[in-house]
Each structure stands twice: as C-alpha cells, then as structure tokens.
C-alpha cells in the first residue's frame, strides 16, 4: 500500500477515501457553491493539497453520474497531479448541457486515481523502426473490423 499525505487547506475540506473495497478511485468534493452556467467552465476548489511519492501521480477523472445525468464533466481529463506539486487540487469542470448546474459545497465533483508511472529515457534518432500501421493516424484503421 502506498501512503499519500493530504493537507486540508480549509477546515470544511473533505478527505478523499475509498467507498467500496476494490474501488480504483476516491471521490473529491467541492468546498464552494458555484453555479456552472450552460456551456461554461470553471475551476472548482477542493481545499486539499497532496504529497504523492515520486513515481506516482494522481489522475483526476470525471464522475460518471454527473456526466450522464447532467452533462457536466472535466475539461482536462484525466488531469494529472504530479508528485512535486504542493498547491491546491482544483478541478476544471465544464457544463455541456443546455441548463445551468449548481455545484454545492460538499458535493462530489470528481474522483482521483493513484497511478504508477515510469520515467522515460529520451533518445533522439534519425529513423524509427517500421510497423504495419506506419504513420497512419486519426481514423486510418476505419470504424469496422477488417
């Protein structure tokens, strides 16, 4: 088990926790009331800062219930909270619906998932190896099974 240190920046901030055994994500909560207007975006405060061990990140992901029921999701998803960052976690929310969405203080607004990563060793080269796909990009494999 990996230890994450969490600091409350406001007394009413809610410490994330796993709700069910086996859950990958922990919910994070708003510390403010905010009316997120239709087709607008905003950074919402969680009142928390984190100390994450090197080699890990916290990925900030949308809440599926808010996304499907209200059309509200995260603009930068997954967002990354790096191990060296000690500032407040703020969640960038966007309202894709035609109605305003009231974010209430103490409401679940996102989830965080601890993810391990490897640091890459960068090597500049003149050529890359050949593959069957080559440089085919966006949509080059089509939408149906070949």
Describe this entry's structure for a reader:
The chain is mainly beta. The protein has a single domain (5-116), classed as Deoxyuridine 5'-Triphosphate Nucleotidohydrolase, Chain A, CATH 2.70.40.10. The chain has 1 helix and 10 strands, in the order E-E-E-E-E-H-E-E-E-E-E. It has one helix at residues 64-70; strands at residues 5-8, 25-29, 34-36, 41-51, 56-61, 72-74, 79-81, 88-95, 101-103, 108-116. The protein has a 4-stranded antiparallel β-sheet with strand order 1-4-8-6. It has a 4-stranded antiparallel β-sheet with strand order 2-10-5-7, with no helix packed on it. The termini are far apart.
Which structural traits does this protein have?
about 150 residues, mainly beta, Deoxyuridine 5'-Triphosphate Nucleotidohydrolase, Chain A, four-stranded antiparallel beta sheet
Q: Note the run of SSEs as H and E.
A: EEEEEHEEEEE
Q: What count of helical segments does DSSP give?
A: 1
Average predicted confidence as pLDDT: 94
Unreliable runs: none
User: Beta-strand level of the residues, as a percent range?
Assistant: 35-45%
Briefly note the structural class of the backbone.
Answer: mainly beta
CATH names the topology as Deoxyuridine 5'-Triphosphate Nucleotidohydrolase, Chain A
| Strands side by side in the biggest sheet | 1-4-8-6
- The helix fraction, in percent, is under 10%
State Rg: 19 Å
């Amino acid at each position: 088990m990996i230890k994450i240190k969490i600091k409350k920046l406001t007394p009413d901030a809610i410490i994330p926790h796993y709700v069910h055994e086996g859950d990958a994500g922990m919910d994070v909560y708003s510390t403010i009331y905010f009316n997120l207007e239709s087709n607008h975006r905003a950074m919402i405060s969680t009142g928390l800062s984190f100390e994450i061990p090197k080699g890990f990140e916290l990925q900030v992901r949308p809440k599926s219930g808010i996304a499907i029921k209200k059309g509200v999701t995260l603009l930068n998803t997954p967002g990354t909270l790096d191990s060296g960052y000690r500032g407040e976690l703020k969640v960038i929310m966007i309202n894709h619906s035609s109605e305003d969405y009231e974010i209430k203080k103490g409401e679940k607004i996102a989830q965080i998932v601890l993810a391990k990563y490897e640091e890459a060793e960068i090597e500049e080269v003149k050529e890359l190896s050949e593959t069957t796909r080559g440089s085919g990009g966006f949509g080059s494999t089509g939408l149906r099974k070949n």
